[in-house]
Amino acid sequence: MALSCSSLCSHLSLTRLCGLRTNMITHGLYSPYLSCQSRLPLCRYYSSSKVRRGIGRYVVSKFQRANAKYEGFLKRRFPRFYQLYHTFREGFKLLFQDAKDVQRIKAKMFSDGVQYKDLPYREMEKLRQFRRDIMKALPLVVISIPPFANYLVFVLMYFFPRQLLIPHFWTPKQQVEFRGLYHSLRVRQHWPVLKGLEETSQKVKDGQLQSRLKDLCAKVQNGANPKVSEILAVRSLFSGPPLGIHRMSVARMRLVSPLLFLTPRLPGVIVGRRLNSHALELLLLDRALIRMGPHQLSETELRQACYLRGLHSNSLSINQYREWLSQWLQVSSSLKDSELSLLLHCIVFLSANYPNSASRH
Predict the structure, then answer these.
(1) Which residue from 1, 58, 213, 315 has the least number of CB within 10 angstroms?
(2) Contact 148/161 with Cβ under 8 angstroms?
(3) Are the C-beta atoms of 137 and 168 separated by less than 8 Å?
(4) b vs e for 319-328, b when ≥16 Cβ sit within 10 Å of the residue's Cβ?
């Protein structure tokens, strides 16, 4: 049998290293007086590096076929496990893509000297969401590093998906279910926040402002939607004591924190810092959205923007979402950094009864 070009090249190289001079190649294929390059022109095209790449492609293709068979087997015999496996794999792809996007954004910030507050809306939202996701996903990533540890991750995904996993690793059904559950936990805080605000109004010395705040709370408690002007009429109360972001009591901060999905079960100092940080981040996000134009949001982005700000309902139309976001941005665009507390309370003021009393149910 004739030697292949690659094996022949390897043979000739070995012969040279041994100091041997071969004057004839078996099977009479080439003249003994020609050089290796003239005798074997194909050797120039099949170098050792290209041979290694060919072997690599062969191994990868074999692995892909084996993986495809494995997935087919899981899909046929263990469909529920296959869904977890597929969600896990696609989730990591999305997470790694987000990491690449974040790296690109931060590199641009460094090279161009762009500050966070000046980023476009989508890049700012990407950084905000990735920071929250990676803090929750980090334990999962660490657990999955050792060999065969991904099976433990599958078990955790199965029994504790909401507590341990980020949305990247949720199935479509879980996406709907968990978002609804988180929103219901946030809605539970509406009435305690309003009740506490009503009690705090007793400490307001200005009689007119006190009356306006009480009327605002009563209107929301009675199932009505306040106007933007009614909310802005009490804005000065949320820049100093007792309702300013830095002047609120620890008890009140613990009531407000779940509105931004922040845990209140931390020391008061940490709760206050996290609340201030996330509120400022939300205000900067609003300003970036105003610069871009809310009309440029896709349907998915629009629903996500409203969900972050306190509105969630499967029965609302896209126009209703746009209308609600417009009201929110009217309030947000009028606020100063010192009035962040009012922005947090708008999660209750604007969404508690929109469009009707849906949040009570």
Answers:
(1) 1
(2) no
(3) yes
(4) eebeebbebb
Once rounded to an integer, what is the mean pLDDT over residues 69-77?
68
Alpha carbons within 13 A on the beta-carbon side of 195: 7
CB 193 within 8 A of CB 251: no
Q: At a CB cut-off of 8 Å and minimum separation 6, what does 99 contact?
A: 130, 134
What is d(CA 309, CA 332) in angstroms, rounded to the nearest whole number? 11
First to last CA, the chain: 82
Rounded CA-CA distance 331/350 in Å is 10
Here the tokens at position 173 are: 């059904």
Q: How far apart are CA 174 and CA 183, in angstroms?
A: 14
Rounded Cα distance between 284 and 278, Å, is 10
Provide the token pair at 260: 């931004």
Other C-beta atoms lying within 10 Å of the C-beta of residue 255: 19
134 touches 102 (CB < 8 A): no
Distances (CA, A) of 184 to 132, 163, 189, 218, 348: 20, 16, 9, 22, 13
Taking a C-beta distance cutoff of 8 angstroms, is the pair 260, 279 a contact? yes
Tokens of 254: 């613990």
Distance, in Å, from the CA atom of 131 to the CA atom of 96, rounded to the nearest integer, reads 13
Q: How far apart are CA 26 and CA 3, in angstroms?
A: 9
Ranges of each domain in the chain: 5-44, 78-170, 187-360
Structure tokens that stand for 28 in this block:
């009479």
pLDDT in the model for residue 26:
38
Q: Which two tokens stand for residue 225?
A: 């939607």
Q: Which two tokens stand for residue 134?
A: 């990676």
Token couple for 198? 């009503």
Omega before residue 355 within 30° of 0, cis: yes
For residues 15 and 7, is the Cβ–Cβ distance under 8 A?
no
Q: Which two tokens stand for residue 96?
A: 């790694």
pTM: 0.76
What ranges make up the beta strands (E) of 35-165?
A: none
Task: Tell me the average pLDDT of the chain.
Answer: 82
The DSSP 8-state label assigned to residue 118 in this structure reads G
25 or 312: whose pLDDT is higher? 312
Q: What is the largest CA-CA distance in the chain?
A: 111
